[in-house]
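Researcher: I need the complex structure. Ligand is zinc ion. Inputs:
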Amino acid sequence: MNILGIESSCDDTSASVLTAEGVQSNVIASQSIHVKFGGVVPELASRAHQTTITQTVEQALEEAEVSLEEIDVIAVTQGPGLMGSLLVGLCFAKGLALSRSIPIVGVNHMDAHIYANFIDSEPKFPFVCLTVSGGHTQLVYVKSPFDHEILGKTRDDAAGEAFDKIGKIFGLPYPAGAIMDKLARDGDTGFHKFPQALVNEGLDFSFSGLKTSALYFVQDKKEDWIKEHLNDLCASISEAITEVLIKKLKRAVKQTGVKTIALAGGVSANSVLREKAEKLAEEMNLSLHVPKLSYCTDNAAMIAITGKMKAELEQFDDLAMKPFASL
Ligand code: KG4
Ligand code: ZN
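Model: Output:
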């Protein structure tokens, strides 16, 4: 089965071709227009998707050396995401499906982050997945394909949002997560002990207090001081965020008794989080799955693999399918 995956939920336009041999292409057009605003501007995002979607899909087909006639299923992100952005991908996919009589499958973006783990490996069900992105932070108990129970989620900011907002406070460009990760490598995690909210309590998360704490910590400091201590500041923030994530993941494993864990979403690209997850897996004798870096942040290969799994279960959609901002 040849799948064309299309993703446009936020600020990345992406298209991917998945065949029986695996992912043949995964083209990602990231929108740089938002950098100067320090965050995603929805209206600009949907316009940029409109400009790039045709060439992104064409490039994905070209790179894969697969023609549109050879595509058996189109998988497209249905939600959650920005309504205007979702509409561009969905309308494009529906147009293609209608004109070429290709079956279409709507994909939940959060499911797709989880199933990105199936691109290069085969996690055994049931497993617990820590899904950490710019918009979501969830501990998901994945019992069998598409049978999920959300064990815990953030009560306010997502983990990626915390990285981005705190990075902004430190004067870093948007999105700050990957930059903070790099800077943190040369910093001292013990430089300052930032709060780890709800760490000993249940499976929900809260990161807005950390953001306030970072703001208070640097607000009376000079810009030069922040620059001079940037590595240590980033290391201390990364430590606070990843410690909470890992401790809650550990609690979810104990609660469910699973033997397999997975990471997913943009923040799962974080090197400290990946290291801590490896240690946890070793300590508890668990099998750990982490997508390769290009499948952690938003991409269409994860939409294609999820679409494939749904198509195999005959879970097709029709052209009346509507986008959902929140699922
Ligand atoms: O999954 P994703 O690409 O988009 C959403 O669905 O939100 O995640 C983007 C988020 C951003 O907040 C970004 O700062 C964060 O993932 N991120 C990272 C790293 N790479 C991306 N956060 C921490 N460390 C990283 N290496
Ligand atoms: Zn995402």
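Model: Summary of the prediction. Residues 3-114+296-312 form a domain with the Nucleotidyltransferase; domain 5 fold (CATH 3.30.420.40).
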